[in-house]
Each structure stands twice: as structure tokens, then as C-alpha cells.
Amino acid sequence: MPKIKPALSNELRHVLKWTIRAGGLVLGLLILSSPPRGGDALGVALRQAQEVTYYVRPDGGSATQCTGRVNAPYPGSGMNRPCAWDHPFRALPPGGSLIRIAGGDSLIIASGSYMMGYGAPGAENCDAGGAFDCYMPPIPSGPSPANPTRILGDSQNPPELWGTERPWFIINLTDASNIEIGYLEITDHSGCVEFHTGGLACERDTPPYGAWASAGLYAEDSANVYLHHLNIHGLASIGVHAGRLTDWTVEDVRIAGNGSAGWDGDLWDEHGDSNSGTLTFRRWTVEWNGCGETYPGKQPTGCWAQSAGGYGDGFATGASGGHWIVEDSIIRYNTSDGLDFLYISEPGSSIEIRRTLAEGNAGNQIKTFRGPFLLENSIVVGNCAFFDGQPFTYNVDNCRALGTALAIGLAPGDQATVINNTFTSEGDCLVTAEAYGAPNGAERVRLRNNIFVGQTDFLQPFENTCLLYQETFPSDPFDADYSLIANVKDGLCPGPHDICGVSPGLVNTAVDAFDAHPLPGSAAINAGTAATAPPDDFDGLARDTHPDIGAYEWRAAAGSPTATPSATSSVTRTPGPGASPTPTATPTSTARATQTPSPSPSATPTVPPSACLADAYPNGYVDVVDITLTAQKTLPCRIYLPLVVRQWRLPWTTLSATPTTTTTPSATRSATPTRTANTTATATATVMTTPTATATLLPPGAVTLATLGDSLTEGDGDNFELGGFPGRLLPLLQGRRPASTVTNLGHSGWDSEMLINGNGGVPSQLNQAVTLLNQAAAAGQAPMAMVWIGSNDLWYLYSNEGETPPGEEQQDVQHFTGNIDTILRTLRGAGAAVFIALLDDQSKRPVMADPAIRMAILPGISATEVISMSLQVTRYNQAIAGMAAQHGASTVDFYHTTIFTDTATLNEDGIHPNGAGYDLITQIWFSAMSPLLP
Q1: Is-cis flag, bond preceding 372, omega within 30?
Q2: pLDDT given at position 735
Q3: Residues of the chain predicted below pLDDT 70
């Protein structure tokens, strides 16, 4: 059914219909009459015929002070100096001022933060009451596609353009063609959502309105535009509001956390919305739209949809034509449909989607109106109840439109092709087809080489997801074959070459933790047809002459599965909380299996694959647990073990017994381990703690918290994608101290030396923290720091070839102690309250405790060195506790916890915590800091 658009005020309709159009016309006339382009106060410099590059930088000057043509700061005095402007509005001033750049010019914007709206430099013609009209005029069109007008930021550190005082939008492409825009962050500085019914509504009636903007980029009647490397997020309503486009290319653009929709192609006027030409989207991320975005935490909040008066599509258009291409993209966690192509319905329109992940959208992941349609090498995860019961959810329609993963529409005679994809869904069905118009029986949905995994139907939990469904065609349009089908309603197995009723053999088939990588021995391997298989797979890697079924081509020598995260920094990590898992029923074994392919291991086993790759620990699929159990009984089956553990993301249940540890902190810990048959080492180590009470109570007011460390600080393994413990600490800290901030400086793989000095061109965490803490103190905020470092110091000490001699261990402890001394002394010198973690015993993590896994993943660490590592970590903790006591820091004990050994709190990689583990870690950190926050 067509989606109901949110109600619009008469004011909004009037402004979008007339002000923008009239403004575009007036400004167009001004351009034709050759207005000045900078210079003296009256702007009397003549236009020049050649294209000109202009510069903007925070230390530039006004349009009277600087020409804008030299990338240099304003010297502090004089007029018409060769220097940069201080704001983009100097080039494109709002409120009827003269535009100072011409079509074909370039505007280069340096790193920095630029307020866009009423009160910004160059916005003197705006007024407070009409601040919604305070936006830049349309960017002048370039003379040709080969000579576009260019608005570009710094490619290494994109500038931030942030809207304030409710402008309709920030970037204006009304009637603008032949344009290139890149390397910009477009956002606002408010967590409000326009028209929100759940307490987040923006102030729209009385100025001051607040630091928000309605949309990030607006476009109409625009052709030959290239958008690239943009981060459009956190707007009060829409990320991109654009229609009547022709031949646009969008690459490396993120549209996230916008309160109403991500990309809305309905312009809300009487001129229509139809697009034309080729519209290409590559490496495009559309996520968390229909949710507010907190500021400055950049976390989702108040997620809402139609049931609450909102909207929530990731991408949608009005009635349209065009040839649409989406490749290598991510469409996820939007509160309604993911890719809503339902209104791309005009004759001649077509859609191609390749190598794209669609998951966690509350409606359909992908929906279309007509063919030709192609979906290839993509992963479609219909966990349409993702938002159910989540703390960031206000009111979302779970599994809207029945939550079908792929909903295909066909006009008379249309064709759709679905090849080498992997599907799962907790909606009503995996794939549906619906006729639009009067079908003639020639409509076809051709499906080849696809994996289909059903789940428990969220809206009807008494049954599973159906495979294929149609009821509006005169004859069945589905032509499905060479499929791998598991756990679907009624056990449907339609094609003569389909494989049904067997485990799909994927890394994880749980709907909220779905991992489409095939395991060794998966029935999908070599089971596809080469006649229609694309030459590459989801990762863009070549398929072989016997293609696999599904989005991935299995490779015996492949490393760990590659995730596709959002391109965000460690300071502002994109949130991705996981929903409560939906139980997955075990596939029935009674359905027919028409084909049993053989796996392709790197060596030939001496026993048949079926004997090694069985569901020995029954859970519906073959995993590392099963292979480990089988290998213990049948030694030749060990050949499969390295092939699996090398992929890292696997269930670890029953791999080894949970180590016996005490949950009560103890002052001493003694161990007398046996190194080898010929060597015995005895050591007694004391782990000391520094009580939190030694720290001074923090003064009232906001707290600025910096977190320093390695992957445990960065948040690796957090399947909830909440940013590890720093992301979770932010709302807890703000609950005690409003307006507090948390800056996550952690970097995966860093040791204590790197934390101090930086690594690989990335600056020192310690220096960054000191700058941040000094700024906080100067602003009257209480500075605080948390440090968790040392795990990688241990890994690097023991991962080299050969045994690590005791003398080297002693030198390492001394070096580590010196580094901890430097870190704590520096942070305390900045006036911060400092907390530092005592390390867990890494020798007890599953990746180390199980010899087979250790030898497959970390062959450089011997059994003897595992014992040495256990002893070395106690020495590290002694150094941490001693330095903490010396510098007045507080220790936080992770040594006496089971977080890193309990499978319930450990990620499948056997090294990092999972989301539940980070929940506990957050509680431990917060308990330690709470006494300082009266």
C-alpha cells in the first residue's frame, strides 16, 4: 500500500512551492546580469571569463576583507586582501545578497565547523522570525558536465556544515546542474526531531528555534550532479530531499539518523517528482533514518514511524522513471522500508542492485513496482522487528507490510532476476510478487543460486517464514531453481536442482546476528549453476567455474569474514544495537534433498566429508563446535578445523571448559604451572587495587570523559554496535551530569607505546586526551580519563617465532611500567580524575585456552608461552596498581571477572567481549566512577 506522507503545514507548502522557486528565478536573473564576485564593500569587481577557485577557512575574512582567491588567513587588517573567506555564505549569501561565485568555479572549504543559518557570518540579511528562509541560494550551474561547479571540503578532515535556527535545508541544488559536491559533513547540533510526537519535537513557532535544520540537501530540476564523500546525518527531518533529477551519481555517501527519512524524493508540489536518466549509487550507506540523533553523542533516539505520525524510509521517491543502479551499499536500521522503489513505476524505468546489504529495516528491506529488476550478490536480512523493545525506540511498526524481505512488483510482461543472493527473514515471507495493472501471464521472477533461510514469523510466531508468495497473477510467476532452502513454512522445494531440508552451513543463521559466510562443507559450495552466476561475489572476488549458491563464494584460504561498517571515527562510532534474538527453528530433515555437493578443503581428508561436517552439537547448522567435537573422536577430521577457526566469527560454546575463577577480588593469587616436561616455573603474584575513594569528588556540572586504550576501548566485538563501553557510559553519565561528553580515543591493535606516541600517522591518544581535558577544565567542566591498555603489549611480546626468554620478559615489564607511569602522570597533570583497568588473564580466553584454535590462529605462541603470559599479566597488573597508587589514580578490576571466559559475554572470535559483555564492563566502570559523581 502507498505510504502516507507526514502532514505539512501551510507555511511549509508555501515556502517550498514559491519562495524556493521565486528565489531561484531572481537569483538566476542576478547571475545573468553579471553581479560582482568579491572585492570591495560594494562588490564592484568585474566577473572574469575564466573559471576561478575560491577558498574558505575559519581564519579567513569577510567578503570585503578578502578576495577569497588565495588559501591564506586574513592578516588582521586591510580590505580586499589576497586571503580566504571565513564562511561558505561569503560565496553564497542567503537573503537576496549577490552571489560571488559563477558556474564552473570551485569553492574549497577547509577543515572546521561552519554554522549555517541565522546568525552565521554572511547571513546579515536574515531575520530571526523568518530564519527558516536563511539558507544558501542555489549553487550556480556549471557550463557543462565536464566543467562543473565544485564545492569541496578537505578530503582528510571534512569540514562540518551545521544548520541552526531551523533553515529548510543547508545545501541548495534548486535548478542546479553540472555540480560536484564532496568531502563535507552536513548536520545540525540538536537532537530534536521535527513534528515528533514523543517528546523530541523541535521548536518551530517562536525564535530562537535552536540549533537544528530540517534537511541536509535539497534538489529539484537538477542534472549531472556528482555527490561523493558526504556524511549527511542528524537532521531534524530529511537527509536528502531531492526529485526531478537527471543523471546523478552518488558515491561514498552516508545518510544517517535523520528524523523523518533518509532520502525522500517526493517534493510535495504540483510539478511532480519524476527522475530520468541513470541514477547511480555506489558505496552508499543509509541507516538509522526515522530516528533522532543525539547531540553530541550521535546515538539513535526516539525512533518512530507511521504509527506515531512519522515516516522512516531509508530511501523513497515519488512517481518516477529512470535507470537506478545501487552497488556495494548498506541499507539498514531504518524505521520503515529500506529501499522503497515502489513509486519508480513509469514505463522504461529499471532497477539494478548488486553487492548490497539490506538488514534491520522495520518494513520491507527492498520493494519495487515494475521490471526489469535485477538483484545480484546481495544479502537481505529481514529482521523487521529489530526496533522492538529497544531503548532507542519510541514507536515503530514492527514488520510493516508483513515484513517481507523482498517485495517485487511486476507490470504486464515484466521480468525480474534474482541471482546469487542470501535471504533470511522473520517477516511473513522471504520473497513476494504482486501484479500491477492487468497481468498477461508472461511475467516472471527468475531466481537462481539463492540461499533462503526461514525464521519464526514475528507477527505469527506459530509458523515460520514462507518462501515465495503470489496471488495476483494468472499463473505462477516464480521460476526458482539451484536454491538452498532451509526452515521455511510448508517445506517448499520448487526447483529440480534445489537443495532442501539441510543445514544452510552458514557462520550464523540467527536473524539478529546473521552471517552469510558459508562454512566448509556447506551444501551451497559448488552447487550453483554457472549459466547465470555473476563473475564475482558479494566481496567483489571472483567466483570459480563451479559457483556456490548464495552471495559469498567460499574460499579455503579466506581470512576472517569482512564486515562492512559505517565510515565513522572511533570518537563518534555509528550505533548499531542488536534486537532481541528471534528463535530459529531447526530445519526439518524430512524435506527432500536433491543434491549433496562435496566441500572443497585445501587438502584431501582421509574420511568422507559427511563424517566430519555433521551437526554433532545439534543447533541446526555445522559450526566450529561440531567440528571440534568430531575431531576429538576422528583424528583425520582435524583437517577441517583450521579452515573454520581461521574465519574467527564462530560460536565458541563447549570449546573448552569455563575456567574456574573467583568473582570476589583477592589480594593475592598464586600459581605453580608446569611449563613443559623438562621445565617447571613457580611464581607468586600479588594483584593490588587502589580504592576509588582516594580520588577527589568531582565538582558539580558536566563531565568531559576521555577513554584511552586498544580494541577493548574502541569496542571490537560489540555485536550490539553501541560503541563498546564508552558508548554505553554516555547516557549513564549524562543521567548524573547533563551535558557531559564521552570521547572514545581507543584504537584496535594499539599497545602502551602507541598510546603515548601514536601509530601509523594516527596521533597520540595521550596528547589528544590532554588537549581535550585542558579544554574541558578551561570551560568549567570536570575532566576525567579511563585507560585500558596492555593486552596488545602481551600479544606482541609472545607472538614472535621462538620462545620468549625470561630476560626479555623482565625488560618488557620495565618498559610497560615506564609507559604506565608516563600515561598516568600526564593525565593527572592535566587535572583529570583517572581510572585504569587491571587486565584479565588472556591465557584463559578461548583463543588461547584451546590448543587447536591457538595453533590455527596464533601459531607463534607455544603452550609454554601461554603459561608465561599468565604470569606476565600478573606482573603487568602489579605495575598498573603500583603506578596508580603513586599518581592517585583508581584501578578497575577486570582480572577477577569471567567476562573473557564466559561464552555468554564473549564474542565469537574468542578474544573480545560481545554486547552482553560490554554491558557488564560498562557497569563495572560506572560503579567505579559513581562515587565521584555526587
Answers
A1: yes
A2: 84
A3: 1-50, 557-695, 801
Q: Is omega for the bond preceding 208 within 30 degrees of 0, making it cis?
A: yes
DSSP-derived secondary structure letter, 18: I
Place of cell 535485477: 374
From residue 214, give the alpha-carbon distance in Å to each of 209, 515, 533, 704. 12, 36, 44, 29
| Three-state secondary-structure class, residue 515 | strand
Query: Would you tell me how many other CB atoms lie within 10 Å of the CB of residue 111?
Result: 14
Burial code (b: 16+ CB inside 10 Å, e: under 16) for 873-897 equals: bbbbbbbbbebbbebebbbbbbbbb
Q: What is the pLDDT of residue 586?
A: 27
Cα 435 from Cα 429, distance rounded (Å) = 17
User: For residue 161, what is the enclosing H or E element?
Assistant: strand 160-164
For 554, phi then psi, to 5°, come to: -70, 140
Query: What cell numbers appear for 171 in the block?
Result: 545545501
| Cα dihedral sign, 587-509-401-448 | negative
Q: CB of 52 within 8 A of CB of 69?
A: yes
Q: What is the pLDDT of residue 29?
A: 26
Report how far residue 627's alpha carbon sits from residue 631's, in angstroms, rounded to the nearest whole number.
6
Q: 751: closest CA among 736, 739, 764?
A: 764
Per residue in 563-622, pLDDT (tens digit) is 333 332 222 223 333 332 222 232 222 222 222 222 222 233 344 555 666 665 454 545
Buried b (16+ CB within 10 A) or exposed e, 9-18: eeebeebbee
Check if the beta carbon of residue 518 is closer than 8 Å to that of residue 538.
no
Q: Are 258 and 237 in contact (CB under 8 A)?
A: yes
Residue 18 amino acid letter? W
- CA-derived radius of gyration, the chain: 30
Q: Look-up: residue for cell 510478487? A: 433
101, three cell numbers: 561565485
pLDDT at 615: 61
Question: 621, 659 in Cβ contact below 8 A?
Answer: no
At residue 367's C-alpha, the angle toward residues 366 and 371, to 5°, is 115
Task: Give the residue from 771, 890, 907 showing the smallest Cα distance to 826.
Answer: 771
Inter-axis angle of helices 806-829 and 765-778, to 10 degrees? 20
Q: Could you read off the pLDDT of 280-326 as tens digits, one per residue?
A: 999 999 999 999 999 999 999 999 998 899 999 999 999 999 999 99
Cα–Cα distance, 300 to 731 (Å, whole number) = 12
For residues 900 and 919, give the distance between their C-alpha atoms in angstroms, rounded to a whole number: 13
